[in-house]
Amino acid sequence: MIVVENIAKSFGDVKAVQDVSLRADDGKITTLLGANGSGKTTTFRAIAGLLAPDAGHVDIDGITVSKAPIEAQRRLGFFPDTFGLYPRLTAREHMQYYGELHGMAGATLHQQIEATAQLLHIHDILDRRTDGFSQGQRMKVALARTLVHRPPNIVLDEPTRGLDVMSIRLMRNILRQLRAEGHCVLLSSHVMAEVEAVSDQIIMIAGGKVCAEGSTQDLVAQAGTANLEDAFVKLTGMDKEYAA
Amino acid sequence: MNPLVWTVFRKEMKDMVRDRRMLMAAFSFVFVTPIFMLVIAFLISDDRDSGELTPLAVANADAAPGLVVHLRNAGFDIRPVEAPAALSPDSIRIPKDADAGLLVIPEAFQDQLSRAEPIALSLFQNASSRAKISDSEAVQAAIANYGRVVASTRFIVRGVPLVLATPFTVEMHDISEKSLGAQILTDGFVMIFLLAPFASSMSVAVDTLAGERERQSLQTLIAQPVSAWALVLGKFLMVATFGMTGAVLSLMSMSVLLLFMPQDIFPIIINTSPVNILLAILQMLPLALFAAALQVLISISVKSFKEGQSYMSLVLMAPMMIAYVKIYGSDKLPEGANYLPMLSNMEGLSATLFRGEFLGGLFVISAGVALLGTAVLLSLTARRLSHERLLNT
Asked: What tens digit of pLDDT does each residue of B277-294 get?
């Protein structure tokens, strides 16, 4: 479970996150929905222990990230906004490296690599170097690297960006499977259809602040609109912004 | 040691050795430099005195038979030519094979000589190569020597004892342990050897952090449960391994080079006993660690591979400059400077490789300085790796 309590983060004069609180439960898919520059990535980086918030704190399974970052990171799988692969390593070697960084070794690691390859359907590219991989293949390797240690909490920053339809469908199925296995899944997106399709809980963020949260139905009802997209525009205040 | 350091080290090594261009960049210095030195040595040896007479074109040779005989005895092959119409450098043509140039003797040479008047000889030379300049200088020396013979004869004829013309003589005695030339040669040899760890680890050092940042894989890596120190040490050890491998290969290639070097051009012999080689490698180790730590710090401080390469080139110039200071100005350095990396390595390695001595005291102090510097540089790198600014790509 991931709990974010009133975090704030500024970079010079820019207030990237002003006041964000959220709770992502185990066995659920929680989505942080916001426009570009709304503070999603900064929030995720704080959760992953890459940034220290100026105020507030992040707890992962009860461990405060700022106090015990290594312990918190052990319980987290982080899929950042860039895939960042090593072109000279194979898909298997990516999983092996990240598995070892999480303290896995020997038969356990080997079994986990096989299970992850099975989950992501990547046996055909498992022993190929990632140089020249398509965007979909790169996404799969980056996801495999994130999941190889089977973290209880998984954070994915815009995981479907740049993917084709089949890769997006595969990603959705994987997220649902992880939810079914009891993982806490927290992702960010600004693609309404995708958010609606997988999310149990949606947290809307704008200007570095949480402005609404609930299920798709809750948010549509709260905004009094016909669909999630209109609800998002209304609840985040973007309608007034554009009207002005 | 933290097992994660080993994990990072293994991954980095695997990643780097798979890049052929990286390997070529890493070890080209080690193999190309000795070949370059060998080529230069053979070019120099080609200029050496072959025992053959040096062709010298002489105009109006008949006017000065004594001088011509003197020049012939001094090793010149006299080629008589027609006298030029005018002594203007623009109109003079030196015969193609006259390496020592063209000597123009005035037609009135004998008359002027008998009247003891100053005689103006003209020597036209082609200063386009070191060998031709050297030949022309030899002609001037031979003529000056002939002038002294003529002057001595005049003194004797006039009853003046020759000793009056030479009030004193100086006899030179060189008591230095090693000539300046030999010292410069051995220091130059050691300098190339010492540059190897810097040159061999440069490209992998840039790739290990600046490259990782550019590929945007660094963000994911530092989100893993591994301390900044473990990451830095794993990467640093990989860079140092490349540096040390470069140093050992450099020692081997330079030792092989000496087998083919003309001994009169490069009159130094390397002491290649196993103990000496091991002592040389031991002395290289602190420098290789220091070089790797410095390069890793630069790599974390830049945003891209290209930027990293620019700074690394400057870093490669620093030890070269230090080495030249040591070669040409060691007597002006303060005493403490000899314990600094590079300077101490040059002193210690020179002693080990060429005199078979191990300067233990110097090694202990200088290794301590290098290791302390390494620790400080690694500490700065670990701090930078933990810094949020690193996420700005």
From this structure: 899 999 999 999 999 999
Length of chain A: 244
Give residue B345's pLDDT. Answer: 86
Q: In the predicted model, is pLDDT for residue A244 greater than 60?
A: no
Predicted pLDDT at A20:
94
Instruction: Give chain A's domain count.
Output: 2
Cα four-point dihedral sign A57, A175, A39, B390: positive
- Answer whether B20 touches A (CB < 8 Å): no
Single residue among A128, A151, A174 that ends a domain in this structure: A151
Chain B hits for A87, Cβ within 8 Å: 215
Domain boundaries, chain B: 3-43+179-391, 54-164
Nearest Cα residue in chain B from A41: B391
Same domain for A128 and A178, yes or no, is no
**Residue of A45, A73, A82 lying closest to B216 (CB–CB):** A82
Nearest by CB: B217 against A45, A50, A86: A86
Task: Looking at the structure, tell me whether residues A15 and A124 fall in a common domain.
Answer: no
Q: B382: which 2 tokens?
A: 């670990």
In whole angstroms, give the CA distance from residue B351 to residue B345: 10
Residues from chain B contacting residue A88 (CB–CB below 8 Å) = 14-15, 18-19
B218 touching chain A per CB within 8 A: yes
Same structural domain, A145 and A159 = no
Smallest Cβ–Cβ distance between B223 and the set A50, A52, A97 belongs to: A50
Domain that holds residue A108: 84-151
> In this structure, are A7 and A64 located in the same domain?
yes
For residues A88 and A147, membership in a common domain is answered with yes
The percent of chain B in helix, strand and coil, each rounded to the nearest 5, is: 70, 5, 25
Residues A147 and A163 in one domain: no
Residue of B9, B10, B11 for testing the chain A interface, max A β-carbons within 10 Å: B11
Nearest to A45 among B7, B8, B391 (CB): B391
Assess whether A170 and A61 both reside in one domain. yes
Res. B236 pLDDT band, cuts 50 70 90: very high
Query: What tokens were used for B218?
Result: 């660094």
Q: Residue B369 burial (CB < 10 Å; 0-12/13-18/19+)?
A: middle
**Listed residues A121, A151, A181: the one ending a domain:** A151
**Residue B391 binned pLDDT confidence (cut-offs 50, 70, 90):** confident
Cα R_g (chain A), whole angstroms: 18
| Tokens found for residue B163 | 């000793």
